[in-house]
Design goal:
Blueprint: E1 9-11, E2 21-23, H1 26-35, E3 43-47, E4 52-62, E5 65-75, E6 84-89, H2 94-105, E7 110-115, H3 125-146, E8 153-154, E9 158-159, H4 160-164, H5 167-170, E10 174-178, E11 184-185, E12 196-200, H6 208-216, E13 220-223, H7 231-246
Parallel strand pairs: 1-3, 6-7, 6-12, 7-8, 7-9, 10-12, 10-13, 11-13
Antiparallel strand pairs: 2-5, 3-4, 4-5
Helix pairs in contact: 2-3, 2-7
């Protein structure tokens, strides 16, 4: 017996009118018509990024755009019980894209891209803004795929030491740095009562000065095992381990 196909999900930022007609934003409309190859009459699930999802049907697809007939809202939470911010040293090419995609699937609440001493990628303000917009698009696509109805934010790119001294960073209950060869295993850390910041370096890791400054700022250096992991592997493995130890895995 075949299982009914799950309707594709579309992110519609802003207010979605229950029992009304909704115009799909251009980017999502292009995805629906040209990538998903949807047609009038097809069922979709629309979500607003703030916790609500809606059954909907495509009413019309034309050169002018895509319109939906929207049904009842549902408050469906697939969020992790853990409030995790991933602070990731910017890596090159598809590595950063992969890290962000998988971090969303693994339940992070926010992603903080960092420029560090060993960052291969150097971004001027204009390029940094474009990269953040690109990464936010990856977040949206990942939410559409994995079923999350709350869209995490990719925060503006910031220099490592400026971020390290910020009050938002200091407010986290648990601050962890991924460091090969650290004395403490992640499994030895106790579950926090509050937010978690997970810091991962870029290719080549953090510099000795940055590593020392994180310890002075109250971070605990943890290792994931005896092997040295690539930057995109380290963050993903750590998030999966944290969810297994304390979250919803």
């Amino acid at each position: 017996m075949s299982r009914a196909k799950t309707p594709p999900r579309l992110y519609l930022p802003g207010d979605i009118p229950a029992h009304g007609v909704c115009i799909v934003p251009p980017e999502q409309a292009h995805h629906a018509s040209h990538v998903l190859r949807l047609a009038a009459g097809d069922a979709v699930t629309a979500f607003d990024g703030r916790g609500l999802e809606y059954d909907a049907t495509i009413a019309r697809i034309s050169k002018q755009g895509v319109t939906l007939n929207v049904g009842d809202p549902r408050a469906v939470s697939r969020e992790s019980p853990l409030d995790i911010t991933l602070a990731q040293g910017i890596s090159s090419g598809d590595r950063m894209d992969y890290t962000i995609q998988k971090a969303v699937e693994l339940g992070v609440r926010a992603i903080q891209p960092l420029t560090t001493e060993r960052s291969v990628v150097r971004l001027d303000p204009e390029r940094a803004a474009k990269r953040v917009a690109h990464w936010q698009g990856i977040v949206v696509a990942s939410c559409e795929q994995c079923g999350r109805n709350v869209v995490p934010h990719v925060l503006p790119v910031v220099a490592f030491h400026a971020w390290l001294g910020s009050p938002e960073r200091a407010s986290a209950a648990l601050r962890l740095t991924l460091a090969p060869g650290a004395a403490v295993r992640l499994a030895e850390v106790h579950r926090p009562e509050g937010g978690i910041v997970l810091l991962a370096g870029p290719e080549g890791g953090l510099s000795p000065r940055e590593a020392a400054d994180t310890q002075a700022a109250g971070f605990t250096s943890v290792r994931l095992g005896p092997r040295v992991l690539r930057t995109e592997t380290a963050a993903v493995a750590a998030l999966a381990a944290v969810q297994t130890l304390w979250g919803d895995f």
